[in-house]
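Ticket reopened. Same input as before:
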Amino acid sequence: MTSTKLKMTACAAALAALSFNALAQVSGGSVKIGVLTDLSGTYSDLAGSGAVLATQMAIDDFIAKEKPSFKIEMVSADHQNKADIASNKAREWLERESVDTVTELVTTSTALAVMKVAKEKDRIAIMNGPASTPITNEQCNDVSVHYTYDTYALANGTAKAVTQQGGKNWFFLTADYAFGHALEKDSSAVVTANGGKVLGSVRHPFPGSDFSSFLLRAQASGAQVIGLANAGADTTNAIKQAAEFGVTPKQSLAGLLMFITDVHALGLKPTQGMFLTTGFYWDRSDETRAWSKRFYDKQKKMPTMVQAGQYSSIYHYLKAVKAAGSDDTAKVMAMMKKTPINDFFARNGQIRDDGRMVHDMYLVQVKKPTDSRYPWDYYTIKATIPAAEAFQPLALSRCPLIKK
Amino acid sequence: MKSSANFLESKLPLLFGVLFILGLIAPFAMYPTFLMKILCYALFACAFNLLLGFAGLLSFGHAAFLGTAGYVCGLMVRDVGVTPEVGILAGTVAAGLLGWLFGVLAIRRTGIYFAMITLALAQMVFFLALQIRATGGEDGLQGVPRGHLFGLLDLNDNITMYYLVFAIFCFGFFVIYRTIHSPFGQILKAIRENEPRAISLGYDVSKFKLIAFIISAALAGMAGATKTLVFQLASLSDVHWHASGEVVLMTLLGGLGTILGPIVGAATIVSLQTQLADSVGSWVTVIMGAIFVLCVLSFRRGIIGELQALIKRSGVN
Amino acid sequence: MEIFGISTALLGSQLLVGLINGSFYAILSLGLAIIFGLLNIINFAHGAQYMMGAFVAWIALTRFGISYWAALIVAPLIVGAVGVLIERLMLRRLYKLDHLYGLLLTFGLALIFEGVFRDQFGISGESYEVPELLSGGVDLGFMFLPIYRGWVIIASLTVCFGTWYMIERTKLGAYLRAGTENSAMVQALGINVPLLITFTYGYGVALAAFAGVLAAPIFQVNPLMGSNLIIVVFAVVVIGGMGSIMGSILTGLGLGLIEGLTRVVYPEASSVVVFVIMVIVLLVRPAGLFGKS
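Engineering reply: fixed in the latest deploy. New output:
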C-alpha cells in the first residue's frame, strides 16, 4: 500500500465516521418512548391500553411513511394512579433505559410528578390524559407539553356556549376537592362573563355514589342548567340519577369533564341533550373516521380524545426528532413548538411556550336515541371553538416561563 | 428444639452483619431509587410488625402515619425551607403525636374493634388530606426539594440519598430490635399471649400498648417522611386505606412477628409491583389478591417464618 | 315552613333519600353481621359480592334476556353459590385461627374479583335500565320520588326483617345460633353443623348480591362500585354491635338518616360522619349500640 492510498483510506474512514456521527445524533441511533398510563384503575378506559395502542400505531405509521434513519422503541407501564410509582418508573426509564420521552400520564398528580423528573433529567414529557391547569401554569416547565385538553378549555367551551344559547341560570354539583373547585370556579367566571347567573352550588364528597340528595337541591334551586363539576364515576352516576329523579329533561345538564366512554357507558337515554366540549370526535370528518376505524378494529372501542391526542402527539414528536436530526431535548422542543400541527386530530394546532398545545375544540350535543343511526353515533357537533379562544389566553398565564 | 432456636439466635448478629454489608454495596449493583423505595416500605412494615407481630394489635390505619409524616416533611422542606434532616424529624414527631391521639382512642379496645377504630380514624385523616389546601389534594404535594443534608451533603445525588435512607432504615430497625429485646418488649409479648395474666401481674397494660403504638406510628412516619424526600412528593395514595392494607400484606407475606420478615415482604411486594407494572398491566391487583389468598391458606408463617421452621426442623434431625 | 332556617321540604326530602340509602346499608350490614355472628369471619369481599350481584343481573339481562324480577332471585343464587364454594374450599380452614386471617383472605378475594371484572368489562361500567313496571315517579309535594326508590325501601326492609325473623324466631335459626355457641353439642343432636355454616355464608353473600341487583338500576354497574361502600358498611356493623342482627338493620337505617341530615347541614362531611359516629359510639359503648359485651 502506498502512503497516498493509506492517507485516502484514512480520510475516507474519517469522513465516514463524521457523516455517521451526523446521522446518529439520535443517541444510540434509537428513540425510545415510554408510555406511562393507568392500565388498571379509574382512567383505564379513557387512556389505558387504548393509549398504548395509539402510541404503537403512531410509531408504525411514522416508520412506514417517513422512513426514519433511527430506530423507534416503545415501553409501557401501569402507574396505578400513584404519583410515587409514576415518579419511580419515570426515573428508572430516564436514568437506566435511556427513554427519551415519557408520555400519556393521566391524572394530574402523576403528571406533575413526572414533569419534575423529566425536567431534572432534561428529557421530554408529553401529557394527554391529565386535566388540570397547573400543568401549564404554576408548575409549568420547558420540557413538557400538555397536548389534548385541560379543564379550562372544557369548562370554558361548555359554559360559554350553553350560557349564550340561553341557559342563563346555573347551579353547580361539585366534587369536593381541588379539581372540582377549580372546574366550578372557571365555569362560574365564564357564566357570569356571558351574562348568566350562578344560583348556587353544592359540594359532594369524593368519591360519591348516591347523588340524589344533591340533585334534589339542584332541582329546588330552579336553575336551568346544572353544571357537573366532577369526573368519572361521579359524573356518570349523577347523570343517571338526574334522569331517575326527573331533574332532566326539565333542567339540562352540562358535563364539564366528560369523555365519549362515559356517554357510551351510560347510553343515550339519560345523556341525550347534554352539552360538552371535546378535543376530538371520531365521526367529525373522513380523516377522523378513517383513523378511528383502524383504532376500533384493534381496540373494539372508538377512541377518546386522549387516545387520539396520544397518537397525534407522538407523531408530532417523532417528526420533530427527524426534522431536528437529533433527540436532544432543547432542539426537539424547539422544533415541536415551531411546527404547526394539522392532522386528523388537531386543526390549527400550535404548542405555546407554556407547554400548552392549542387547537380547535368542539362543542357537541349528545344525540337523542332516535337520532343515533349506528354504534357510537353519539354527538352532533354544534360549534367549533377556534384554537385562539379555546384555551386560557397567555395573558392570564401564571407560568413563570411567560414573560409579560 | 431449644438448642436449634438458640443456634438461630446466635447466628443473628452474623446475619445482620452480612445484610448490612449487602445494604452498603447494593446501590452499585441495583437501581438506587428502587432500593430506596424498598427500604422506606421495609421500615414502614417493620414499624407495623412491631405492633401486630409483637404486641398483637392489628392497626388498619397505619397509612395515616405514613401519609401525614410525608405531608409534614414535604411542607417543612419545601415551604418553610428547613434542611432535610429537620424535615424528617418533623414528620416523625408529627406521626408520633398523631399516633398518641389514635392510641389513646383505640387501645381501650382489642381485636377487630381496635382495627376498626384505627381504620375510622385513618379515614378522617384521609378526608382532611383531601380537603386541606396545603396538601394539594388530588394533585399531591409536588416539587419537594431533596436539599442538602445538614446543609452540606447534596442529596440530589442518588448514591448520597441512598446512604441517608439506608442509615435511617438501620436506625429505625435498631430501635425496633432494641424495643423487642428489651424488658419492655418482653412485657408486650406477655400481653399479646395472655392479657389478663399481664394485668394480674400488675402491669399497666394500656400504658405499654400506648407506648408501643406511638413508637410504631413514629417509625411509620419516619418511613413516610423519608419517602417524600426520595420521590420529592407526597400524595393521597399514601393516606388511602389501600396503603394500610398493603402493609398488612407485606408483613404477612414476609412473616408476622419475625424480625426480618417485614423487610423480605416489603422487598417482594415492591419488586412485584414494579415488575408487574411493565408486564401484566391490569392484572396487578388480581395477582396481589392471589398472593393474599395463597399466604393465608398455605403459608401463614410467611417467607421468613417458613424458613425458620425449616431450619428448626433440619436442626432437630 | 322552616326549621332553623332549613325548609321542611328540603329536610323531608333529604330524610327520605337518607332512608333509601339506609336500606342499602341495612341489607349489606345485615349480611356482614350474619357472617360475623355465626362464622366469626369479617367478610371483606362483601363489597365485591355486591358488585357481582349487579353484574350478574346485567349479564343476565343483556346476554340471556333474563328480566329484572328473575334476576332478583337468580343473581343472589349464583353469587351465593360462589360464596358456598369459597366457604367450602377456603374459609373452612380458617375457623380455628385469629379473625385476622379471615379478613385478609376475603380482602384478597375482593381484589381478585374486582380485578377480573375490570379486565372483562372495563372501568366505565354498564347501564341497567329501571324495569318498566317501576319506572316513573310520584310527586309527594315536597319532592319527586321515583317509584323505583320506593320499591328499594320496601324490598330491602322485607328481606331484612324476614331474615331477622328466620334467625331469631324459627327452628332453623335456633339450630344456627346453637351451632355457633356449641357446635359439638348440636352436632351430637344429629344436625349437620358444617352444612349449616356453609349455608349461612352462602346466604350472607346472597344478601350482598341481592343488594347489588337492587342497586343496578340506580348506580352505574361498575367493577369498583362496592370497594368504597364496604368501608362504610363495616362501620355500620361495628356501630350496631358486631354480630347483632337487629342492631345492623336498625343502625343501617339510622345512619342513612343521619347522613341525609348531614347533607342538609354540611354536605362535604357526609362521607366521614359515619366514622365520627363510630369512634364516639365505641368510646361510649364499646360493644356497639346493640351488642352484648
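Confidence is low (pLDDT under 50) at residues 14-24 of chain A. The interface with chain B takes residues 39-40, 44, 48-49, 75-85, 87-89, 91-92, 95-96, 107-109, 112-113, 116, 120, 132, 134, 139, 176-179, 206 of chain A (CB under 8 Å). Please confirm and we'll close it.
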